[in-house]
Specification:
2 domains; 343 residues; single chain; Rossmann fold; four-stranded parallel beta sheet; 10 helices; alpha/beta
Length: 343
């Protein structure tokens, strides 16, 4: 398995280098048109802070690792890794400390888009360029935002549910952390896809805060009133895996859909514990965000569009090898693990 992880990191590293150094495939502006990022080079030393909501989430661990690799490939960049510890006050304090330190730029995925807005605004007002990644902040003049199209990801979940339940059925929905834009957008996309489908009913709808342990408890609670759901859909893989634990303990066989395409989720799809997940290419997000920031600071090249979105991909047992972290899970890659342009 260690060899597969090493291979996976090497392949993703190659992908990220090509993503930064040339016009990337699979990036889309807000209107859905492909976006080309100019070649990024930087000879001067830079200090850049990269802040994530919490390194207790495998998704953000992977994002941070790929940001570090991308920084090493671009040039002499010191990447300060900031763990928000799933606390908006902690993440805000980290940003304030970076302002005092006078870093050259900040890439941040805010734990709570509203709570982090004042700290991000302070950084911008102090002359520090900020690029948000994965989670956008409204009302602040940031340099750019790079993320997945989470609304479309939620729609893909909903469309897959409809394919699983052609005659209708009952659905459990596990939402992400309140206030987090991915949680809001994924729920909106899911509801949009199921709108007007009266035979498919969400009978249990509750947050589990993106946490596996909470998902176990939440699903157990849901089963008390609704003992036989037909599908469970979760806003991330950790909650999906927690739901799988609860379902197995109850002796049920229920299709479960996650979001993030974590290696553990890919293996769970392979063994049948999960039915599907949504790939949102976090490595590409991190590399692209860092490339945009460095290109602005080092070369005075500004992004053509503020928002850059990577179209998500539904991953099932039929296309596991297309996931960004397939090799890390010991699954053979099939084609290049990259997003495809939106239509």
């Amino acid at each position: 398995m260690r060899g597969y992880r090493r291979l996976g990191r090497m392949l993703v590293g190659i992908l990220l280098l090509s993503l930064i150094a040339s016009a990337p495939v699979g990036l889309a502006a807000q209107d859905g048109t492909p976006v080309a990022t100019p070649a990024v080079t930087c000879d001067q030393p830079l200090t850049i802070a990269f802040s994530v909501p919490g390194l207790n989430f495998p998704f953000f661990v992977h994002m941070m690792q790929e940001a570090q690799e991308a920084a090493a490939q671009i040039g002499p960049i010191e990447l300060i890794q900031l763990d928000g510890q799933n606390s908006a006050p902690k993440q805000s304090a980290d940003i304030e400390a970076m302002i005092v330190q006078g870093v050259d730029g900040i890439v941040i995925s805010p734990a709570d888009v509203q709570a982090l807005a004042p700290a991000i605004r302070s950084a911008v007002e102090a002359g520090i360029p900020v690029v948000t990644v994965d989670r956008n902040v409204m009302g602040v003049d940031t340099l750019a935002h790079v993320g997945a199209d989470n609304v479309r990801g939620g729609e893909l979940q909903g469309e897959y549910i409809l394919s699983l339940l052609p005659e209708g059925g009952q659905v459990f929905e596990l939402r992400g952390q309140p206030g987090a834009s991915p949680a809001i957008d994924r729920d909106a996309g899911l509801k949009r896809a199921l709108e007007g489908q009266e035979e498919v009913e969400i009978v249990f709808d509750q947050t589990a805060n993106f946490a596996r342990s909470e998902a176990v408890t939440v699903v157990e609670s849901g089963l008390t009133a609704n003992p036989e759901p037909d599908v469970i859909v979760a806003a991330n893989d950790d909650m999906a895996l927690g739901a799988a634990e609860a379902i197995q303990a109850a002796g049920l066989d229920v299709p479960i859909i996650g979001f993030d395409a974590l290696p553990e989720a890919l293996l769970a799809i392979q063994d049948g514990s999960l039915a599907a997940t949504i790939e949102q290419f976090p490595g590409q997000q991190a590399a692209t965000a860092l490339g945009i920031l460095v290109n602005s600071v080092c070369n005075d090249v500004q992004p053509v569009e503020h928002d850059t979105y990577l179209p998500p991909l539904l991953i099932t047992a039929e296309n596991l090898g297309q996931a960004e972290r397939a090799a890390e899970a010991g699954i053979a890659l099939t084609g290049t693990p990259e997003a495809s342009p939106t239509s």
